[in-house]
Design a protein that fits this description.
The complex is a heterodimer of chains A (about 240) and B (about 290). Chain A is about 35% helix and about 30% strand. With about 240 residues, chain A is of the alpha/beta class. The chains are: A alpha/beta (about 240), B mainly beta (about 290).
Amino acid sequence: MKDLLTVKKLRVTVADQELLADLSFKLAAGEIAALMGANGAGKSTLGRALMGDPDYMVEAEELSLNGKNLLDLEIEARAQAGMAYIWQQAPEIKGVELFSLLNLIQQLHDGDYDYQLADPLLFRETNVGFSGGEKKIAELVQVLNQKPKLIIIDELDSGLDIENLDKVLSALKKEVQQQKIAILLITHSGAVLEELKPDRIMIMRQGKIICQSQKIEQVLNTIKEYGYQKCEQCQNCL
Amino acid sequence: MSGSEVLPAGKAWDKYDWTHQYFGEKPNEGYFIWVKEQPSCSFLGCVSLDKPGIKQQLNNLTVIESGLYVDMTGTCDSATILTDKQVVEGRAHQAKGKLVLRQGASLYYQHLHDWAPSDQVSTNYEFFLEKGSSLEYTYKVENAAAAMQLRATMHLAEGARSDLKVLADCKNVNFQMHDTAHLKGAGAQAISTLRIVGRQGAKVIARSKIVAQAAAKGHLDCGALMLNPDAKIKLIPELAVEDQNAELTHEASIGKLSAEQITYLRSRGLTSEQAEDLILRGFLSEI
């Protein structure tokens, strides 16, 4: 498969503190990669840095999406280039109905994804008083209207009840398969992994990717039995 | 419009003695609107400043009879921008007005202000809400004059309700406002919501007050966004209770644009400017 995202020797700092170092991986078009690790391993930092969050200073030998150098692009230009991000804790935008925001996103990206999934939320202020599940539904409908090539998903299941999780996962799965969207899936959840069936799993620890494997079940069993620490010594999955 | 009477304020003074208690003195300028039967459409009024040197001094009276619902939009604006030479002559809009809502009447009133940067504006409105009447009043400043004073006073009888919203986008303006709701009857309810945006050269003092003289409820919600370090904003919420069964609350905040909100919207593909504009529009139209 053709490489979509290339990350080579990525270093991320905030206020001169190094959070990620020497981090490299690739993601192919349409590939789903799960990114796992203990709390504080740097998963969300990686997601935000890739998206172009201005709070993070990013250096890399290469950081590209579809051959386009992301290091030259601001966050909105990365969104225009096909990168989308589902926030773990989406902020409230008071006074702005979700419907208006979706219309704006559709115009900017020439998107055409149906709003129906978010129907009961459309005329409420964006994310104001939304439950965890409602926020994720709103996030999904927004990013699918960006016509993304890659979606970075930060903890899809946080705050989602089982019913809404099923709804979100099945909508996401359908679009991912039809549109060949790549996913970088930051998660702790077995249910999410089971449903989206990633092609690869990557384990992060202390700001580094210490394991990349296609043997998903084997890696998950190891983590379940020995914790993430074991991955540092394990060579079998590499 | 059938069932309603619209007159110059001076003629209303001459025709109806009962208006004297509201006008105070015979008005030279201004309008009189008396809604006696349910209107079939909205009222739309426009007051504009045109030539340099003009000083409008309006004295208005609106009376809505019992049980009627009225939808009203008033636009106050500058029809022209003065040249540097004309600015010396000055131009001012002064309006005072009384709005009387008889028992069970309802008024939805949007009052829009769009001024040239050199004008002087002063408005002083007083609302008399009789038993069971309701008022929804939005005072929106889209473009501020050089100096603006707004005073709005509500008198609420038993079971009356008022919902005041002041939405002001302030740039290079000395903006002073003072709204007061007097809850005089049991079961009266008042909400005052202020949303102020402070841009370059904005000097804002906003006082918002509720006085409960009966077992009534009230809430003040004052919020301001500072967009420029040069702006100065003072919000002064005040609650006064004279009946121990009254419930009054308030919240007030002054802050700057949230970096997180901007980043969130930029991650959707909006530029910084588009993101800021959307957040501000949301802030100034907050439900």
